[in-house]
Structure formats: structure tokens, C-alpha cells
Write a structure and sequence with these properties.
Its main location: membrane. The protein is an all-alpha fold. The chain is about 65% helix and about 0% strand. It has one domain. The chain has 2 helices and no strands. Helix 1 (about 20-45) runs antiparallel to helix 2. It is elongated, with a radius of gyration of 20 Å. The mean pLDDT is about 95.
Length: about 80
């Protein structure tokens, strides 16, 4: 079974490489703001007003945005993942 490479279609990324810088800045910015809100919320809340669900949601949002921001940062500088 021989594979003819000339008949194959080239792979196209679902996200244009020209958008990598913009996505990096936006996602890392949102992630850093969420992280700052997480720390401010932890410091300013009292023992009675603290909610573990709220802290987990904020931490999940922050880690998601920081993770995808780091991914697009690596793609932007040429580290193909």
C-alpha cells in the first residue's frame, strides 16, 4: 500500500499565526487580572465570608487563561507544540 504524498492536502492551523501575539497579550492579561483578583479576594475576605467554591472558580478561570496564554506565547516565539 503506497501513499502518494502529492495528493495530500497541507495542514492548516485553526488559528492564524498572525493572531498569536494578540491572543497571547489578551489571554495572559485576563489571566493575570484573574490571579490578582484571586489574591485580593483571599486577603480581604473574612473567615465568615470566604467561599471555597468562589475561590475554586476564580482559580480555574485564572489557570485556564494563563495556560492558553502561555501556549500562544510559545507558538508566537516559534516553539511548535
Amino acid at each position: 500500500m503506497a501513499v502518494d504524498i502529492s495528493k495530500m492536502h497541507p495542514y492548516n492551523s485553526p488559528v492564524s499565526p498572525s493572531l498569536f501575539p494578540h491572543l497571547t497579550i489578551i489571554l495572559l492579561g485576563i489571566g493575570l487580572i484573574s490571579t490578582a483578583y484571586f489574591f485580593v479576594n483571599g486577603v480581604t475576605s473574612t473567615k465568615k465570608t470566604r467561599s471555597i467554591i468562589k475561590e475554586l472558580v476564580i482559580a480555574l478561570i485564572a489557570s485556564g487563561f494563563l495556560g492558553f496564554g502561555a501556549l500562544f506565547l510559545m507558538l508566537w516565539v516559534g516553539i511548535n507544540i
